[in-house]
Amino acid sequence: MSHDAGPSVIELADVTKVFKSGEVSVEALRGVSFAVEEREFVAIMGPSGSGKTTLLGILGCLDRPTEGSYELVGQEMSTLDETRRARVRGQRIGFVFQAYNLIPRTNAYKNVELPLVYAGVSRDERRSRVLEALASVGLAERAGHMPSQLSGGEQQRVGIARALVVEPSVILADEPTGNLDSASADEVLSILRRLNDEGATIVMVTHSSEVADHASRIIRFADGLVVADEPTERSRAAEPLGAVG
Amino acid sequence: MTTLLEHSRIALSSLRANWFRAALTALGVVIGVASLVAVTAVSAGAQKEVADSIRRLGGNVIKVDGEFITIGTRQSASDRTLTPQDIAALSQLPAVTAASPHQAIESIVVSAGRNQANTWLEGVTAIYSDVQNQSAVRGRLISDADVNFGRSVMVVGLDAEQRLFPGESALGKTVRVGSQEFEVIGIQARRGSLADENLDNRIFVPLPIVTRVLLGGANVVHVDLRVETEADIEPTIGAIEDVLREQHKLPDSYPDDFSAEDQASIIREAQRATTTFRVLTFSLGGIALLVGGIGIMNMMLVSVHERFREIGIRKSVGATPWKVQMQFLIEALFLSVLGGIAGVLAGIGATRMIGVFAGWQTIVSVPSLILAFSVSFAIGIFFGYYPARRAARLDPIAALRYE
Fold first, then answer.
1. Is the ipTM of this complex over 0.90?
2. Is the entire prediction scored with pTM above 0.90?
């Protein structure tokens, strides 16, 4: 990884997160350090309660670490206020949620457009980027459909289009196939892989090793700590190609 | 500017999704604004009416009225206590420029051919028209000669004319009062109404006809005195009391068998009574607005709560706290301002209805509309702020997890 020019996309150093509720405090992350480089597809695995969702919250700038440092493309995130973090979320991070999280009664086009609206992108540019993003997940024809008129797989693809429309530094996916049947899940995963092949950096939380195998690297969590960090079969197969490219 | 437009679009679409609830919520503001508009219009109309009445009646007029008095268990026989001598004495007072005695029969049926009308018959002298700003549209008014010779002549108001001679002119025609016939010599120019009395339903005859012929005797109940300036009113009222007590030889222990009040103050007093009513209605409008505002706040709180997840999604795709706050604030503003617009329209409508059905004069003024509208705007900001702030401060993680 050290041969890559520029900073890592994600660089975590000794990140801890403590949740306090009254007298009880729970240590969800107990000193996590790792880096994610550009064009990586990282799966984060671990049993529930291992801290992987907490980690994703911190990576997504939805939450701040209690201690430690988190740099996103060389910029420290742990000290930013909520307004700045919101801007980072809107412009540098693309979220894909397990429950799709599309805004109801709002059509696919408008859902995908939303991050660009908040980012202050002009109307004309928004139009071309939204249509492009929808086309890349194969839903250009469904732009006018409401979430309720779309299948789960289609809704998740709209979610992916919304994540990639801002051309984020990293796409964070939280159990993206958790609510899908296997056919839709395969479709979603193949889209994520294709995006990764096209240059997107992806961090995906999952508890399924089948899903994780689509990634190029798996980081395993237990009790708020990284217990394993290794490349997958897919990565080893792809590496020579990456070296040539 | 683009973002404001975007916020408005977002706010409008979420209102549209819940349009029925939004409409109900806005209703409080509609009612509040409408009542403010209507009350303001009615009160402006009433104010103008009072000003008009004072102008029409002529300023600086003191009304002297005979009164019944009670001494011990005995009550005086009549309130027609003002004698011709009294009137002569009153007209001698220094500031008095005119003394107009008149005597009314407040409800009497008169007839013309087969038509009958219940009218107000007023016996007057020539000076009456001067003091009361009365003029004739056709013919002439009661003259000194009519009074001196006790002529059977009559001046009729326009409404009385219409009822006695529908569709034609009364001029030169005959009107019967009891067994006596009168020739109509003039038609009074329109005077409108004073308080609830229609001044155009009155008929006027020479004073002696009412006092001597119809009622008997020479005394009258009313004398209107005009003084030179407003400053003369107070001292003249004092002088009237001295003169009349002297004239009537009232012992010190007896109360006045007359009253003296200046005409404008009578009207202003009546106006004060309506002011109380206005303040009350105005406060009710204010309360409706307050309740409307609380309604908006309630709906916005519910709406924020229902949309925790949506707020979380918006935050996750880059909505800053400020932008979330703007969205909800604009939503509240839309509600209250749309309510305000509807309220202004409803208020104008209600004002028209009041004008038609109650017959009151109303004035819908542009400043009052702007005021009502601004108030609804302020309510949107005020009651929308807290829910919007709550939405803005929501923790994105908690909001996203919310089911």
1. yes
2. no
